[in-house]
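I trust your eye. Have a critical look at both lines of this record:
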Amino acid sequence: MDETATTSGRVDGAQPGGQATRVRRDGYARLGAADLGIDTYALADELAELAAAYRDLPRDPYARATNRFRRYSHAVYLPWTGELSYIPGAPDEEFGTVTEYWQDEHNPEYPRVLRRLPDVPPALRGNRLLDALIRADLGHAMWLEDLRRAPVYVGVHLISLAARDREQVAISSPNCLHQDGGSPATFTFAHLVGRRNVEGGENVIATPESAGRQPDALAPEAVHARFVLTEPLDGYGVHDCRVSHYVGPVRLGAGGDEGRRDILIIGVAPYTPGL
């Protein structure tokens, strides 16, 4: 599938009930494969293909010493036709193509920095599991009217935190509770692709006022949930303006000389008209 690959199939808002309504009611929810309607048996080959893509992720070009590896691409979803189309990246001498990543003031480590990150490989964009996860995430957000009346921006982010010795610490960005910012209709979904021989990587969901702080510095009532993703496709979703979220550093476990935590992040937000 090429740079402008498209797939179709309209997405309706998730049906009431279970974890689907918790994103709407509480601003966050734990979401596993069953909550997303994903048949892991039927898509086992696609999960293996997705997992293989993490083996050669480039180092984060803006933080090469953090043991963080990543790729990122944009796509556009049209709610009225169901079309999902990836936006071509810009040519780059080191990575082939790159996509710009902007978090305004919401990432205190890169305030108002327009980062250019290596693209998701074109061959992976035709992966049926990746497409199913994107559409399932959209289904958990499309109850919001603002996402029904405009093209929807979809950010597809492959991130690996990896450690190869006891001295290494792999750190996400930003290394604090945060919000991803942008529109009040922004959602972020995370899906574990693999976790092997690592310690740490705790996820925390807290109040929006907790952004910029460390979880252990918060009063207990400010913390909504703390958990560790352990099984493939374990994950969560957040309505960004209503909570803050965090993932802790990862260190090598006791089971060998390499450990890694591979995560797929899907960002959803309405496109803002430019005219």
Summary: The chain has a mean pLDDT of 90.
